[in-house]
């Protein structure tokens, strides 16, 4: 199994350092620090989620801390690439403690000597704490529990590599491959910078979180970051193809690698490829703002399955593909140019049992004791976020300020401890605003000797302290404006197993989708509501706390990381197998078909055609219908269908994709559509006509139970695609009982499952004894008179021993019928036949109409 993610960096290629006082030793003893950029550090170049660190023998000079735990490439990092103190003619250099300038006239190495340093410097591999912790922990847990047995991580090593000699790169990649199940992609520094810092962090990340960039003059655009993004994705795809073995599952993760599935699919058409997006997926109105929107979507459609954290994100993805690519969609899959992609939600979980073990360690117990000593008899409100606008830290503090003003008794009895992880992208305006709010809140306390109401830590703390802190918390608050899945919620729920403290949770996080029962959900934009939620949380009875916690804890334990990995891999396997079955249909065995035809007595043949019949087709149908039940399924109206096939009197007709059935031998028309729910035609026709008025060459055709928006004569292809997408999007999201699909430049709107309902009724009518007299389902009709009344249809029972359904592939119309026919067990001979090149549920294939009718003619002769 491959697990693919891109490495990331939080610094530029020559990163700036910060001059700081020593970081506080613990959350118990926070110390203020002056934060301002000074200059270029002498040696150290450390990168966010980097697996490689360079450091001198004297002082490890830290640069900007991590921003997003997006990707963990290897689970490990390479550390301690040391330089000799007596390098460069024996001169030594004193690096400024905690960052700062080094003398420009005492460079540790010049350009000529770089290769020698990196060629001989030793390195070690150590455990790496940063990266996508949720993914890393999930894979580690699944390995321990035997869910995953063989695996390979694939990613970048996350540091500048241009200066490394080739033999050093080889040593590093070999070490990672041989000892750590890790394959490496080594893009150029320029490509990596443009990919991660520019396109991912300045374009993809904010837009996925509804923060659309509005600065077209930024470096993200100037440096053509899209080209870098595409190039790095191609390097990943090439590496996958290089190391791939038959049977491997390729599991691609997150927005850094959206193009990889399609790139790999072009080289490995039969590979098992799954994609999981860890962040939120925006609505189609936001996603359409991407200049490369079609390319991004098409990249994902190379996967067999695409999974998201919540049903909402999955629905947004389906709707976006439906609107922008005009893909056919259902609730859990889409079809685009013959490719079927399964779509699902699968929320990430945590390793709860491991967390419980850590909670009982002596180190965590000691920290808990220190925290209780530091804040005795205080109610602790805890929050831990990355420092950016999307996390809603400002809104959280404003709401807490309002809560304290309204409830002054909590000024001295409660403490909000806000831990903020540093971000690579500095936001001095936000920092000023937040610190101003913190100072304002702390000034509410009349007792300067008492603990301040807010403790603000602009840095991360080690995990043992963090675990102790949430174990002692009386309330945990998550106020993100948008977030894929906030696993700190899960950690808090497990950690508060003794106190069973409440959780305040933003409804705009993926976690809110799984914690609907038990959490206090908030809208972070509504400051007043958030403020009131503090009051609600503090006033909960112990019984209410315990019941809420029990609901939350059950979800965490049921949907843990093992469940996520196992269900995700199964979904990829099942999706691949389903698509292989559709792809691996065989050319029709003509001899078997004819033999089965001859051996049977009661035959039903349903043909799905959307063309005007030729003389040859009419002749074959005439002969075929003499001793068989033959039905023509079409999008045509009743009157048009009767006119086209009037020369075949024994032929049964199914008009408007199943809306009406005319029994063979000139029987009455029967209405299948639900006449109690046909108001949609009037409302949808108004919308469709409004599109037609703005799109020259288009027109609307209104049937009795279907509506068609024709665009065959439209010349403006760009406006045509946009109008079709908008209409389909509107229809499919306005009424769950109807569905719009695009067939041959025509948008067809009809009741959901109408065709399948008609075919099922027809088969039941032919094979079962009884009467069909449901007035809501069957009423007599004629092409020229309105539908009215009710008629009881008598019929003779007979066993159906031969069934053939043939037609073009359509996710809405014929595909559900083919799938239904394949599952029939009481019919001796079933043939589902597709003509054309699309993937289909059909088991057999013919090249086209001519071949199909040649086979039918041979059987009937």
Automatic annotation (TrEMBL):
> Which keywords appear in this protein's UniProt record, sorted alphabetically?
Cytoplasm, Phosphoprotein, Transferase
Tell me, in one coarse class, where this protein mainly resides. cytoplasm
Q: Name one GO cellular component term.
A: cytosol
Q: Name its cellular compartments.
A: Cytoplasm
GO terms (BP aspect): trehalose biosynthetic process
Single Gene Ontology MF annotation: trehalose-phosphatase activity
Spell out the family assignment given in the record's similarity comment: In the N-terminal section; belongs to the glycosyltransferase 20 family.
Q: What is this protein called?
A: Glycosyltransferase family 20 protein
């Amino acid at each position: 199994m491959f697990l693919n993610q891109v490495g990331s960096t939080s610094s530029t290629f020559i990163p700036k350092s910060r001059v700081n006082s020593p970081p506080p030793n613990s959350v118990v003893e926070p110390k203020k620090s002056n934060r301002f950029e000074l200059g270029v550090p002498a040696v150290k170049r450390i990168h966010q989620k980097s697996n490689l660190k360079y450091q001198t023998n004297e002082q490890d000079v830290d640069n900007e801390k991590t921003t997003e735990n997006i990707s963990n490439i290897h689970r490990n990092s390479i550390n301690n690439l040391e330089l000799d103190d007596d390098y460069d003619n024996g001169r030594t250099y004193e690096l400024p403690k905690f960052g700062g300038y080094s003398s420009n006239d005492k460079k540790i190495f010049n350009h000529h000597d770089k290769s020698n340093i990196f060629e001989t410097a030793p390195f070690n591999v150590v455990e790496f704490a940063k990266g996508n912790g949720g993914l890393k922990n999930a894979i580690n847990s699944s390995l321990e529990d035997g869910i995953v047995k063989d695996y390979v991580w694939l990613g970048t090593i996350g540091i500048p590599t241009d200066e490394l000699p080739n033999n050093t790169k080889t040593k590093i990649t070999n070490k990672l491959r041989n000892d750590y199940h890790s394959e490496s992609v080594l893009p150029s520094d320029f490509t990596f910078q443009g990919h991660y810092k520019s396109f991912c962090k300045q374009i993809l990340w904010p837009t996925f979180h509804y923060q659309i960039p509005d600065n077209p003059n930024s470096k993200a655009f100037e440096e053509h970051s899209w080209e870098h993004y595409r190039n790095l994705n191609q390097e990943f795809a090439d590496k996958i193809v290089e190391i791939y073995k038959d049977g491997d599952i390729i599991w691609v993760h997150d927005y850094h690698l959206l193009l990889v599935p399609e790139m790999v699919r072009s080289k490995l058409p039969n590979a098992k490829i799954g994609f999981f997006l860890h962040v939120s997926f925006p609505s189609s109105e936001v996603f359409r703002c991407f200049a490369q929107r079609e390319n991004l979507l098409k990249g994902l459609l190379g996967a067999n399955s695409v999974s998201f954290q919540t049903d909402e994100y999955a629905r947004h993805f389906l709707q976006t593909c439906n609107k922008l690519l005009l893909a056919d969609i259902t609730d859990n899959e889409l079809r685009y140019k013959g490719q079927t992609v399964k779509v699902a939600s699968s929320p990430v979980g945590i390793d709860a049992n491991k967390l419980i073990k850590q909670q009982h360690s002596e180190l965590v117990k000691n920290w808990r004791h220190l925290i209780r000593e530091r804040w005795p008899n205080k109610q602790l409100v805890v929050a831990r976020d990355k420092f950016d606008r999307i996390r809603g830290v400002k809104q959280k503090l404003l709401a807490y300020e309002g809560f304290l003003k309204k409830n002054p008794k909590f000024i001295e009895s409660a403490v909000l401890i806000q831990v903020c992880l540093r971000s690579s992208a500095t936001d001095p305006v936000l920092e000023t605003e937040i610190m101003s709010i913190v100072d304002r809140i702390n000034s509410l306390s009349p007792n300067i000797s008492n603990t301040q109401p807010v403790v603000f830590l602009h840095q991360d703390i080690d995990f043992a302290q963090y675990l102790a802190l949430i174990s002692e918390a009386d309330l945990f608050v998550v106020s993100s404006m948008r977030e894929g899945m906030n696993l700190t919620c899960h950690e808090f729920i497990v950690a508060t197993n003794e106190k069973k403290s409440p959780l305040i949770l933003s409804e705009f996080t993926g976690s809110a989708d799984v914690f609907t029962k038990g959490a206090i959900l908030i809208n972070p934009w509504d400051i007043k509501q958030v403020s009131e939620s503090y009051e609600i949380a503090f006033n909960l009875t112990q019984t209410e706390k315990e019941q809420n916690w029990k609901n939350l804890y059950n979800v965490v334990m049921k949907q843990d990381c093992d469940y996520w990995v196992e269900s995700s891999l199964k979904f990829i396997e099942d999706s691949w197998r389903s698509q292989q079955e559709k792809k691996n249909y065989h050319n029709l065995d003509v001899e078997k078909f004819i033999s089965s035809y001859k051996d049977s007595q009661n035959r039903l043949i349903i043909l799905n055609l959307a063309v005007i019949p030729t003389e040859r087709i009419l002749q074959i149908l005439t002969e075929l219908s003499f001793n068989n039940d033959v039905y023509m399924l079409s999008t045509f109206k009743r009157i048009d269908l009767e006119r086209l096939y009037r020369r075949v009197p024994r032929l049964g007709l199914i008009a408007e994709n199943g809306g009406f059935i005319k029994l063979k031998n000139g029987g009455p028309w029967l209405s299948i559509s639900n006449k109690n729910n046909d108001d949609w035609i009037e409302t949808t026709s108004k919308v469709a006509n409004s599109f037609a008025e703005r799109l020259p060459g288009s027109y609307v055709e209104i049937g009795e139970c279907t509506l068609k928006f024709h665009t065959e004569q439209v010349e403006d292809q760009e406006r045509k695609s946009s109008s079709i997408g908008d209409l389909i999007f509107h229809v499919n999201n306005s009424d769950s009982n109807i569905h719009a699909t695009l067939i041959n430049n025509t948008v067809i709107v009809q009741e959901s499952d109408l065709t399948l309902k008609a075919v099922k009724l027809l088969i039941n009518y032919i094979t079962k004894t009884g009467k069909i007299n449901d007035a809501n389902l069957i009423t007599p009709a004629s092409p020229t008179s309105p539908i009215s009344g009710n008629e009881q249809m008598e019929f003779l029972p007979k066993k159906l021993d031969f069934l053939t359904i043939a037609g073009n592939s359509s996710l809405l119309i014929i595909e559900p019928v083919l799938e239904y026919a394949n599952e029939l067990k009481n019919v001796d001979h079933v043939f589902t036949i597709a003509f054309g090149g699309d993937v289909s549920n059909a088991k057999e294939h013919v090249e086209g109409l001519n071949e199909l009718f040649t086979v039918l003619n041979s059987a009937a002769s």
